[in-house]
Amino acid sequence: MVIISQFCVEYLFLLLRLVQEHFCYICILYIHFSEYTFLKYLFHLYSEHTITTSFKEALKKKKGLLRNAL
Hints:
Blueprint: H1 6-14, H2 20-32, H3 35-47, H4 53-61, H5 63-69
């Protein structure tokens, strides 16, 4: 059984606000790769400015956790 951290669950819900192609790709990435890869891709989206403002605000609130994950 795979245990998903609360941190990732929160981000999965926030991902619903992304455009459909990003959401599908991230779900595939999360299912097939590690939590580290998943968080790294989230950071990539953030740095490329391809995600919504509300998601950027959520990432800023979790900045310390994201930095520790990367």
